[in-house]
Amino acid sequence: MQKLFTLAQLRLAMITCLVALAGCLGTNEPVDQAVVDDEAIRNYLATNNLQAQRDSSGIYFRITAPSSSTTSPTRRDTVQVHYTGSFLDDRVFETSRGRAPARFLLNGLIGGWQVMIPQMKLGERRVIYVPSAYGYGPFGRGPVPPNAVLIFDIELLSITRGR
Predict the structure, then answer these.
(1) Does domain 31-160 have CATH number 3.40.50.720?
(2) Would you tell me which of 80, 85, 109, 162 could form a disulfide with 94, CB atoms 3.0–4.6 Å apart?
(3) DSSP letter string over 50-98?
(4) Strand partners, 144
(5) pLDDT band at 4 (very low <50, low <70, confident <90, very high)
(6) CA angle 82, 83, 88 (to 5 degrees)
(7) Over 90: is that where the pLDDT of 70 sits?
Protein backbone atom coordinates (compact mmCIF):
# COMPACT_ATOMS: atom_id res chain seq x y z
CA MET A 1 0.00 0.00 0.00
CA GLN A 2 1.31 3.39 -0.97
CA LYS A 3 1.32 6.45 1.35
CA LEU A 4 -0.68 9.34 -0.04
CA PHE A 5 0.90 12.03 2.18
CA THR A 6 3.97 12.25 4.31
CA LEU A 7 3.72 13.42 7.91
CA ALA A 8 5.43 16.69 6.97
CA GLN A 9 2.89 17.31 4.21
CA LEU A 10 -0.01 16.70 6.64
CA ARG A 11 1.45 19.12 9.18
CA LEU A 12 1.91 21.77 6.50
CA ALA A 13 -1.70 21.30 5.32
CA MET A 14 -3.01 21.61 8.91
CA ILE A 15 -0.98 24.79 9.56
CA THR A 16 -2.19 26.29 6.28
CA CYS A 17 -5.81 25.55 7.20
CA LEU A 18 -5.41 27.07 10.67
CA VAL A 19 -3.82 30.24 9.27
CA ALA A 20 -6.62 30.54 6.71
CA LEU A 21 -9.28 30.09 9.40
CA ALA A 22 -7.63 32.64 11.67
CA GLY A 23 -7.70 35.15 8.80
CA CYS A 24 -11.44 34.63 8.46
CA LEU A 25 -11.98 35.52 12.10
CA GLY A 26 -10.88 39.12 11.56
CA THR A 27 -8.72 41.29 13.72
CA ASN A 28 -11.36 43.24 15.62
CA GLU A 29 -10.38 44.19 19.13
CA PRO A 30 -12.66 42.89 21.87
CA VAL A 31 -15.40 45.32 22.82
CA ASP A 32 -15.49 46.58 26.39
CA GLN A 33 -19.27 46.62 26.77
CA ALA A 34 -19.13 48.68 29.98
CA VAL A 35 -17.32 51.47 28.12
CA VAL A 36 -19.77 51.29 25.20
CA ASP A 37 -22.75 51.42 27.60
CA ASP A 38 -21.31 54.31 29.62
CA GLU A 39 -20.74 56.34 26.45
CA ALA A 40 -24.28 55.58 25.23
CA ILE A 41 -25.77 56.72 28.54
CA ARG A 42 -23.68 59.91 28.62
CA ASN A 43 -24.67 60.68 25.01
CA TYR A 44 -28.36 60.12 25.83
CA LEU A 45 -28.16 62.43 28.84
CA ALA A 46 -26.34 65.13 26.87
CA THR A 47 -28.69 64.90 23.88
CA ASN A 48 -31.71 65.21 26.15
CA ASN A 49 -30.10 67.94 28.30
CA LEU A 50 -30.43 65.83 31.46
CA GLN A 51 -28.24 65.91 34.56
CA ALA A 52 -27.70 62.60 36.33
CA GLN A 53 -25.47 61.23 39.06
CA ARG A 54 -23.28 58.16 38.48
CA ASP A 55 -23.23 55.44 41.12
CA SER A 56 -19.97 53.56 41.76
CA SER A 57 -21.55 50.60 39.91
CA GLY A 58 -21.76 52.66 36.71
CA ILE A 59 -25.53 53.09 36.93
CA TYR A 60 -26.70 56.66 36.39
CA PHE A 61 -29.76 58.08 38.15
CA ARG A 62 -31.91 61.18 38.55
CA ILE A 63 -34.21 61.73 41.51
CA THR A 64 -37.36 63.19 39.97
CA ALA A 65 -39.53 63.22 43.13
CA PRO A 66 -37.58 63.24 46.41
CA SER A 67 -39.02 61.81 49.61
CA SER A 68 -38.69 62.94 53.21
CA SER A 69 -38.96 59.33 54.38
CA THR A 70 -35.96 57.65 55.97
CA THR A 71 -37.22 54.15 55.10
CA SER A 72 -35.42 52.19 52.38
CA PRO A 73 -35.79 48.55 51.34
CA THR A 74 -33.15 45.83 51.53
CA ARG A 75 -32.60 43.15 48.91
CA ARG A 76 -34.61 40.70 51.06
CA ASP A 77 -37.72 42.90 50.93
CA THR A 78 -40.69 42.90 48.60
CA VAL A 79 -41.32 46.25 46.98
CA GLN A 80 -44.44 47.67 45.38
CA VAL A 81 -43.65 50.06 42.56
CA HIS A 82 -44.96 51.83 39.53
CA TYR A 83 -42.39 51.72 36.76
CA THR A 84 -41.80 52.17 33.07
CA GLY A 85 -38.94 50.46 31.25
CA SER A 86 -37.63 51.89 27.99
CA PHE A 87 -34.65 51.86 25.68
CA LEU A 88 -32.32 54.74 24.82
CA ASP A 89 -34.52 55.50 21.80
CA ASP A 90 -37.39 56.06 24.30
CA ARG A 91 -39.39 53.03 23.11
CA VAL A 92 -41.26 51.57 26.10
CA PHE A 93 -40.89 47.81 26.50
CA GLU A 94 -42.73 47.40 29.82
CA THR A 95 -44.82 49.44 32.25
CA SER A 96 -47.06 49.10 35.29
CA ARG A 97 -48.52 52.57 34.85
CA GLY A 98 -52.20 52.55 33.97
CA ARG A 99 -52.78 49.36 35.96
CA ALA A 100 -52.17 48.07 39.48
CA PRO A 101 -48.67 48.63 40.90
CA ALA A 102 -46.19 45.79 40.50
CA ARG A 103 -44.89 43.80 43.48
CA PHE A 104 -41.43 42.24 43.34
CA LEU A 105 -39.08 40.41 45.66
CA LEU A 106 -36.09 42.69 45.21
CA ASN A 107 -33.41 39.99 45.16
CA GLY A 108 -35.14 38.34 42.20
CA LEU A 109 -34.80 41.35 39.92
CA ILE A 110 -32.11 42.55 37.52
CA GLY A 111 -28.92 43.85 39.07
CA GLY A 112 -29.72 47.49 38.27
CA TRP A 113 -32.82 47.34 40.45
CA GLN A 114 -30.97 45.45 43.20
CA VAL A 115 -28.36 48.23 43.30
CA MET A 116 -30.62 51.26 42.97
CA ILE A 117 -33.86 50.46 44.80
CA PRO A 118 -32.18 49.96 48.22
CA GLN A 119 -30.82 53.50 47.78
CA MET A 120 -34.34 54.88 47.31
CA LYS A 121 -36.54 56.19 50.08
CA LEU A 122 -40.19 55.19 50.43
CA GLY A 123 -42.24 57.52 48.21
CA GLU A 124 -39.27 58.54 46.06
CA ARG A 125 -39.32 58.50 42.29
CA ARG A 126 -36.18 58.23 40.23
CA VAL A 127 -35.06 57.44 36.73
CA ILE A 128 -32.19 54.97 36.43
CA TYR A 129 -29.98 54.35 33.40
CA VAL A 130 -28.87 50.74 33.56
CA PRO A 131 -25.78 49.46 31.71
CA SER A 132 -26.39 46.12 30.03
CA ALA A 133 -24.33 44.18 32.60
CA TYR A 134 -26.88 45.23 35.25
CA GLY A 135 -29.82 44.52 32.92
CA TYR A 136 -30.15 41.42 30.78
CA GLY A 137 -26.52 41.32 29.61
CA PRO A 138 -25.31 39.74 26.38
CA PHE A 139 -28.35 37.47 26.09
CA GLY A 140 -31.30 39.86 26.35
CA ARG A 141 -34.74 38.64 27.35
CA GLY A 142 -38.13 38.94 25.70
CA PRO A 143 -38.33 42.33 23.98
CA VAL A 144 -34.92 43.36 25.38
CA PRO A 145 -32.11 42.68 22.89
CA PRO A 146 -28.60 41.61 23.91
CA ASN A 147 -26.39 44.32 25.47
CA ALA A 148 -29.26 46.81 25.75
CA VAL A 149 -28.90 49.84 28.01
CA LEU A 150 -32.20 50.25 29.85
CA ILE A 151 -34.00 53.22 31.37
CA PHE A 152 -36.42 52.72 34.25
CA ASP A 153 -38.66 55.37 35.77
CA ILE A 154 -39.43 53.90 39.22
CA GLU A 155 -41.72 55.12 42.01
CA LEU A 156 -41.28 53.25 45.31
CA LEU A 157 -44.79 52.89 46.77
CA SER A 158 -44.42 50.37 49.61
CA ILE A 159 -42.01 47.97 51.27
CA THR A 160 -42.83 44.63 52.85
CA ARG A 161 -39.96 43.47 55.04
CA GLY A 162 -38.40 40.14 54.18
CA ARG A 163 -37.67 37.48 56.74
Answers:
(1) no
(2) 85
(3) ---EE-TTS-EEEEEE---------TTSEEEEEEEEEETT--EEEE-TT
(4) 141
(5) low
(6) 165
(7) yes
Phi, psi of 103 (to 5 degrees): -120, 130
For residue 97, which phi and psi values (nearest 5 degrees)? -65, 140
∠100-104-107 over CA atoms, to 5°? 165
This prediction has a pTM of 0.81
- Euclidean distance between CA atoms 100 and 151, whole angstroms: 21
DSSP 8-class letter at 101: P
**Averaged over 66-92, what is the pLDDT?**
97
**For residues 151 and 59, is the Cβ–Cβ distance under 8 A?**
no
